Amino acid sequence: MSGQAGRRAPAEASTDDRVERAAANWAAAIWQTSVVPVARGALADRLRPLVEQLFAAAGDPDGGYATGTAVGGRLVAEHFTDPEALARTLIALDPALPAGQRGALTAGLAAGYTAALRGRTLAEQETIRLAAMQAQARAERALSAAEARFHAVYADSAMGIALTDLDGRVVAANGALHAMLRTAPGGLSDRDLLGLVHPDDRDSLRDMVSDRLATGTVGRIRTERRLVADDGELLWALLAVSVVRDPAGRPTYLVVMGEDNTRRHHLADTLSWQATHDTLTGLANRTLFTERLQRLFARGTGRLGLCFLDLDGFKIINDSLGHHVGDDLLRHVADRITAAAGSDSLVARLGGDEFMVLRADSAGEAELVALADRILAALDEPITVAGHELSVSASIGVIERATLGTDAAELMRAADITLYWAKAAGKGCWATFDPERDAQQAARQLLAEALPGALREEQFTLAYQPVVDLADRRVTELEALVRWRHPRLGELGPEAFLGIAEETGLVVPLGRWVLHAACAQARRWLDRYGWAPVVSVNLTVRQVCAVDLVDDVQQALAAADLPAQALQLEVTERALIGAEPVAALRSLYESGVRIVIDDFGTGYSNLVYLRQAPVHGIKLARSFTESFNSPSHPDRADVAIVRALVSLAHTLNLTVTAGGVETARQESRLRALGCEWGQGFRYGRPAVAAHIDDLLAAGRTVAPHG
User: Fold this and answer.
1) Which of left, alpha, beta for 346 (phi over 0: left; psi -120 to 50: alpha)?
2) Mean pLDDT comparison of 25-34, 224-233, 632-641, 647-656, highest-scoring range
3) Could you say which DSSP state residue 212 is in?
4) How far is it, in rounded angstroms, from Cα 47 to Cα 75?
5) Which of 302-311, 440-449, 452-461, 504-513 has the lowest mean pLDDT?
6) What span, in angstroms and rounded, lies between the C-alpha atoms of 687 and 465?
């Protein structure tokens, strides 16, 4: 057994070697005959089973023909489809095949390879044919769908669509275009579509089509044009024109699409009008007025004039009769102003009951004044609104000037100020611009702006003017008068800024500072000389009405450790009107502070109030004493008035001080009429505290002047 096994082993090894060599030779022969992504060694491994199959066909009844056929088919299945692969296969395998089956195997291999290759080719052709048929079917379906979609868009679109020749003759048009142009169905056939464009827009559109579109400069034109419908109505349309070209690129047709934009245009026009016009009166509004004014200034030359109107008492009509009556009244007023202004003026409503008349290229101020007179005259006639006969008047600010050297903002500022002057003059008045008055008000405004800072920076100081006993010229009082040491304007008297302080409310903190400064100075004089005249401080109406007046006075006295009897407050007659101011003054009166009525006789001289007022004395207005300086005799009326006032004051146990005493003649006449005290330049001008120190150090009397 073992000997037999030893004899068979070499024979088996020899068969394997033949298979390996045959597979390697076969792989080397056909490796590069076809595009098969496999390495030569790997290809030999894949071919080895086929070689083994061929070698095993020795016992087949047909001599291996069927096996060769199967192997030839496998070779095609391995994608070796180049005929060169078959030839090299036969050459490479022929020596290795068994001699008895070699013919049948090679014949079968060639037949199988050929049959498989033919089958593969037919299969690929069928695949290509089916793919082509499927592609054609898809294309036909896509074309059918595209045609359906185009028909839907063309027929059902809200946008007008037309196909025209290159001259604009209509080949086909959808219903939307017929409806847009008010034509019957089919009524556009063979018509010149561009001929329906408005004559003013037609030629330019034809040029765009022929010069830019047909030549290929642009692929499509989008433009907005006016069209004339068959019924003559003008409409705005957004047109899109494109060209259809044949396969050679030659233009053949035009596709015109149009969208009716008439409503949008009307809406835009309406919105534009509303943006520049007053919806109530139809006049120009502030926006249009400002644009027109800016345009006139942009010219750089010429003159213009303004009449700035404000109705007098319109709020009363609006509040009492209702806004619907007020609105109707404004419409009537607008019509009258427009008629009076004429077509060469722009009339605008700036808002509320304010109107502006703008006259370009005006001929001078006289022209604008005449225009203002015409407007006022036009408003004189009563206006009947909702059964009410209403009388209307207006205040008008008139300004006329050259455009060069100014601007719109400055002009409007001047017009606004001038209107304010007109309203201050009374109803139904006009006022013209006054540069000098404007400069004064501008200076006043600058002072108003500087006042708060002046208080913070303590730019104020006090001057004092003596009040003397007319019998012996003994100093009884020192009136504290505030001064403003302005860093740029120098020293300003109270007449320059107290009115501003009163209007702005700053007079209260300023008055508080004066109280504290005067009381502190009085304390210094008491400490230095052992005595001091009463310090007198003026109070404005706003100060007297302030809720904290009593606290302010008491705090000033306490801070200076000054007795109440050393302080006198001078108030005007108007300050005695009202329960609260009188109550505050009575509280101070009862605390010992002296109260005197300043400028008595020029204000609200109600004797009942005077009899009950908490006051210690009166100071006569200077206007009553001026005539007492006459060399011959004073005015009899002034004498009678002073005599009566002195008598009245003494009856009420009040002292009388005469202001404005400048000469010995005035002094003697006032003393003869019973005036106790006098104040004026005869006894000294207002002076700083250091000068008063010299006066008090010299004694209690003053040397008269004049």
Assistant:
1) beta
2) 647-656
3) I
4) 9
5) 440-449
6) 6
